[in-house]
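We close this part of the discussion by returning to an individual protein. The amino acid sequence and the backbone structure tokens for this protein are reproduced below:
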Amino acid sequence: MRQCLVCSHLNSSLTVYCAECGNQLPARHLDLFDAAKSFVLSSILTTILYVFVLPQPMFFALQEVLGNVVSQIIVFFSLWALFLVGFRWWQYRFQMKMLKGFYHTEIIKLFSDGIDLLNSHEKLEKTTSFFQVTRQTNLANSVIYQKLRRIFSHLRNIPKKEQIHQILDYQSNVNFNRVDNSYVLLNTLIWAIPILGFIGTVLGVGDAIGEFSLFLQTVDSSQMNTQIRSALGGVTNGLSTAFHTTFLGLLFAIPLMMFSSMIRRSEEELLLQVEDYCLEHVIPYLQVHESVSNFQSVDEALAKICHFSARWQEELEKCFETVRHYSEGLQNQVKGLQPILKEFSEEICQQKAFEPPPHGQHPEHQPTATVAEKEAN
């Protein structure tokens, strides 16, 4: 079961997209999980070996070699590293199985028909459906599928082959670095096993020298032969521990180093095969149409126009606000001048009503007063 990071829905290991929200399920990096499983299995196997197997009389000679504490640690580390190598080999077989599936005629034909901006998502869904029909689980964890998914996503965002090539080169470097980092624990164990052997050698030689030094301090000349034999027995036990731990360290480290190098080389070769597949069966069929570029240029122009119009709208709103402010002030001033103008006009009318006629003009020729003026008189 795989959990979606968006809606927390549990999905089958066969699916790539969440059945609840439709988002793509994340790929699971199994390095830490494999390390934990290897630790548990090596602990169980070491316990069984030292509790149930070595105490048997038939394994007495083997118990002399593996009985000391340093040898027990060497055996535990060796089993842990061996299980890690086994899980790495299992993951490599899974990746090779997925890569061989992409060489199927149906998948090759699906990509050779052309991959563009409009059908890239559809082709990815058809690829997922093909592997679901063939009952191949954990498709999202395969390197080849992750590579194709990134190619199609970059095709939607950056429809230029040159930039896609640059991004894919960067992704290839990331994949190789990830392989290097996944071998850190295994390389540490392989390095620690012979070091523990040398530590056991130092401890064994130290015990042997200590036994012989104690013999020299407590030697009795009357029982020289008996004491020499017992002292030499302690010395030889210490030396046997020293040589046994060195032997175990080298015996386990050399094959583990060989197996680890073989698996690592195989994984790097797998990454190169994935690159060859993308360069041969995917990249040549990526189609970048002029219409897509034109649409993008039109979208960019429209975006600039919208941004320009929004700026002008803001400026015009500021101007309208200023004009509105001044018009309100002018309106208030006009309202304040209205009473003064009314009084001034009334005074002028009264002065004209009482003004005598000009000199030499007969009253009959005077202009007839209006009805309003008569009423005012």
Observations:
- Residues 293 and 299 are 10 Å apart (CA to CA).
- The first strand starts at residue 2 and ends at 3.
- DSSP finds eleven helices and two strands in the chain.
